[in-house]
Specification:
By secondary structure, this protein is of the alpha+beta class. The protein contains six helices and 17 strands. Strands 7-10-12-13-14-15 form a six-stranded mixed sheet, sandwiched between helices. A three-stranded antiparallel sheet has the order 1-3-2. The protein is globular.
């Protein structure tokens, strides 16, 4: 197959077009770009065909970046983090030594969090009885300059040593972030890079607004898309036998 006919994932297409993955999902759902649906509700694209479709459409693609609050000075550590006073209504993290503060999650975010947690709890209770699923707020320390609070995380039974009394000190098997309007840029860029750099095996992104789930797996030091779906698709994860996520149940 020639390069111009190579099948691409939504993530690869977004990078090639300098767009966000959310825009690719949106255009797929609205059938504004051509796509190929593989077995298991996996969507692939041909760059030349997508470019042709976008060229012929009358509407231009515009994206608005989302900002998040950050305060920077010297590199902060976990010890500094412990001295930061709680601020009701906000979640505070340390990302690469910088304090990041964002508003507390909204109702739709929490609804998705609970429903996905139930699915993961049910699956791992039968497949890894010694493993545990946790939800935010719970500190996870990755190196000394990263203190994160993933929305959901799974620590396998073989990792129990990283579970401390006040935090998770190390890399969970799965980290899940549920995107909020205020966290979109942080979750897709900064946190992805941190989780990749610290070698967390699985990173999932859930977007309630776009109704999408993307499951990344660490391969040769970089995240690649292992499974994805949108709307009412059923996502079967290839790395966790029997783990099936009906997206309709999340929304």
């Amino acid at each position: 197959m020639s390069m111009d006919k190579e099948l691409m994932t939504a993530q690869a297409l977004a990078e090639a077009l300098d767009l966000s993955t959310e825009t690719i999902w949106k255009y797929t759902r609205e059938k504004k770009i051509p796509f190929i649906e593989l077995n298991g509700k996996q969507y692939r694209y041909i760059l030349a065909d997508v470019l042709n479709a976008l060229t012929n459409t009358a509407s231009s693609v515009q994206e608005k970046s989302n900002e998040y609050t950050a305060e920077s000075s010297r590199k902060l550590t976990y010890e500094d983090y412990l001295k930061i006073p709680d601020e009701p209504g906000y979640r505070i993290e340390i990302l690469d030594g910088i304090m990041v503060k964002e508003p507390a999650p909204n109702v739709s975010h929490q609804r998705v969090l609970l429903r996905l947690t139930w699915i993961l709890e049910d699956h791992f209770r039968g497949n890894d009885p010694e493993g545990e699923v946790f939800v935010a707020p719970l500190d996870v320390t990755l190196l000394d300059i990263n203190v994160v609070q993933p929305d959901i995380l799974y620590v396998s039974g073989q990792q129990k040593q990283i579970i401390k009394e006040a935090r998770i000190n190390g890399q969970p098997t799965i980290v899940v972030e549920i995107i909020s309007p205020s966290s979109r840029r942080k979750d897709r860029l900064q946190k992805l890079q941190i989780y990749q750099k610290t070698k967390i095996p699985h990173y999932w992104l859930v977007d309630p607004a776009e109704k999408t789930l993307e499951c990344f797996v660490l391969r040769d030091g970089s995240y690649v898309l292992a499974a994805a779906g949108m709307d009412e698709d059923v996502v079967d994860h290839p790395y966790f036998t029997g783990l099936s996520i009906p997206l309709k149940s999340l929304w």
